[in-house]
Design brief:
The protein is of the alpha/beta class. It folds into two domains: about 120 residues, Rossmann fold, CATH 3.40.50.720; about 200 residues, Dihydrodipicolinate Reductase, domain 2, CATH 3.30.360. Helix content is about 35%, strand content about 25%. It has a nine-stranded mixed sheet with strand order 13-12-11-10-6-9-8-7-14. The chain has a five-stranded parallel sheet with strand order 2-1-3-4-5, sandwiched between helices. The longest helix has 20 residues. The radius of gyration is 20 Å and the shape is globular. It starts with a strand and ends with a strand.
């Protein structure tokens, strides 16, 4: 019997399939049950993973009670994170929830209390945290290669959630794309849809990691909602820190998907310090480093990912196995600061004003 028995609860987010694939590939883990209210979603994922359809359950409580898991992966719509994390937490399980953290800080706090209040681990999976370039940038930053961090410039997104499925399978049929925009929770305001809610947390959470937990003092944001949509497809957020300004831009509708061909602007981060700069782009094989000693710049090969720091599932299960705290972007402490910035940005975009953050 595997050390880690994993259930997948709620398949609203297409990343559930990608996360369960990581469970299948893990030498000490197995998928023991899955549930979603629409049976076709888990059925398709099980087929793609070569798993038995008998793992599918008709009731989420039955799924947990009969499969006797040790941990759960939860992938509801953003607006449903609180409900489903709290539901599953009733069973005293360690939980990995797909990004973003929550619809707002109040939901995030309820999730933290539901899981960590029972002495269990809560991890928020940010796939961007496992890109070699961004992890290499953090190492170089911690080594002082660009001095004190002053500014984080973030731009990220993709052609839009209607354009791809599990395993980044592309959707290009115009009728299917239209149907997805009309029906998908990603485009529903009451489900916390939109590019700001989908992608801003990536930038603000990793920026908080780069800043070693530092919080901004105020946030200003503008978001663009195209005619006929309930949610935005483009947002620009400026956060004021005590050392300067940082910028976070989210975009559904990039010219190309960054995992296929980097669009312009490139997706990723530019970090500016008082002694240099770094460009860390998604999927890049190098980090571009510029310093006073080498103002022309140099390309630093990215560090190889070494287990358990290879992906969210491997890291999550390792922390459970060794009974050590979740750290970095997947931790509730860092992700909560990222969520505070997202909340402030959403309020700023709605009310057209700068929003101060309460300082702890």
């Amino acid at each position: 019997m595997a050390k880690h028995r994993i259930v997948g609860i709620n398949f609203d987010h297409m990343h559930m399939g990608d996360l369960l694939r990581l469970v299948v590939d893990h030498p000490d883990a197995e998928v023991v049950g899955v549930w979603h209210e629409e049976p076709s979603k888990p059925a398709e994922v099980l087929d793609r993973l070569g798993l038995a359809q008998s793992l599918r359950h008709d009731n989420w409580r039955q799924c947990i009670e009969e499969s006797k898991p040790t941990a759960a992966i939860v992938c509801p719509s953003t607006g449903g994170h609180r409900e489903w994390v709290c539901n599953v937490a009733e069973y005293g399980l360690d939980i990995l929830v797909e990004k973003p953290f929550a619809a707002d800080v109040a939901d995030a706090d309820a999730m933290i209390q539901a899981v960590e209040g029972k002495g269990k681990k809560l991890a928020i999976n940010w796939p961007l945290a496992w890109y070699p370039a961004h992890r290499t940038a953090k190492r170089l930053l911690d080594e002082g290669r660009i001095g004190n961090l002053l500014n984080v410039h973030y731009y990220d997104g993709n052609r839009g959630p209607a354009t791809h499925k599990m395993d980044k399978v592309e959707v290009n049929d115009p009728d299917e794309l239209l149907r997805e925009k009309q029906t998908s929770w990603f485009y529903k305001a009451d489900h916390a849809g939109g590019s700001l809610q989908d992608y801003l947390g990536y930038g603000t959470t990793l920026a908080t990691w780069y800043h070693d937990g530092k919080r901004p003092t105020e946030v200003t944001c503008m978001a663009d909602r195209p005619a006929g949509l309930e949610v935005d497809e483009h947002s620009v957020t400026v956060a004021r820190y005590d050392m300067g300004l940082s910028k976070f831009e989210t975009r559904w509708g990039t010219f190309t998907d960054p995992w296929t061909l980097q669009p312009q602007p490139h997706c990723g981060f530019v970090l500016c310090g008082d002694a240099g700069t770094m460009a860390s782009y998604d999927f890049a094989p190098t980090v571009r480093l510029q310093t006073h000693g080498n103002p022309e710049g140099e390309d630093i090969p990215v560090d190889p990912l070494i287990a358990p720091h290879t992906d969210g599932v491997t890291y999550f299960l390792d922390c459970i196995e060794r009974d050590v705290p979740i750290q970095g972007p997947l931790s509730s402490a860092i992700a909560r600061v990222g969520q505070e910035i997202v909340d402030a940005a959403a309020l700023s975009a709605k009310e057209g004003r700068a929003v101060p953050l309460a300082q702890s």
